[in-house]
Write a structure and sequence with these properties.
This protein has nine helices and three strands; from the N terminus they run αααβββαααααα. It is mostly helical.
């Protein structure tokens, strides 16, 4: 079997929504398919396969605690790799994987260096992480699908307590935190609500 070449690139000057949309198109996962996944395990399997079709080797590791590392990306030619902590729930693995895909895209565009050579300050690195979080959230939940599902669930005027975020998260087979990140990106949720 021929492994495809990883060709996706991203720049920090781009909109995270545009980067997320590019990932979404490249994976070929349409919203109807996503909404039809019967459980989080099927969703994880489909998302992992989609990332592998992009030319990324996806691994899971289990001997590291979640508070130490959730995922990592290695841009090595000819085949980059994303490693996901196997202790995560499957709906969390998807978000971590797409977050790492964004890091691979940034590294491929020379926007990011390996950790030992990275010279950004902690504040600058936080901005890179927020960019990756935002782009991953857009890749996992396109804007039109988010708007439609908020309407279908009657959440247009939601206070976005944990229950309402969970209802939406279940539809997209994501964690409440990943869903809250996406809601914050689209202005449904403020930073103050997000931090609660």
């Amino acid at each position: 079997e021929t492994i495809p070449e990883f060709t996706l690139r991203a720049h920090l000057t781009e909109s995270p929504a545009d980067v997320g949309a590019r990932i979404r198109r490249a994976t070929g996962i349409d919203v109807d398919t996503q909404l039809s996944w019967p459980d989080e395990w099927r969703a994880w399997s489909a998302r992992r396969s989609a990332a592998e079709r992009l030319g990324i080797l996806v691994f899971q590791f289990t001997r590291v605690m979640l508070d130490e590392v959730r995922g990592l990306a290695l841009l090595r030619t000819p085949i980059p790799a994303a490693a996901i902590n196997g202790k995560e729930f499957p709906d969390a693995k998807a978000y971590t994987l797409f977050h790492e895909v964004v890091h691979l895209m940034l590294a491929a565009a020379h926007e990011e260096e390996p950790a030992l050579r990275e010279r950004r300050s902690p504040a600058e690195w936080k901005d890179v992480e927020r960019f990756a979080e935002a782009a991953a959230s857009h890749a996992l939940v396109p804007e039109d699908a988010l708007q439609r599902m908020v309407r279908e669930l009657g959440l247009q005027n939601a206070a976005w307590d944990l229950d309402s975020v969970r209802r939406l998260a279940r539809k997209f087979r994501l964690t409440p935190l990943a869903t809250a990140t996406r809601l914050r990106e689209s202005g449904f949720m403020t930073w103050e609500q997000y931090k609660r």
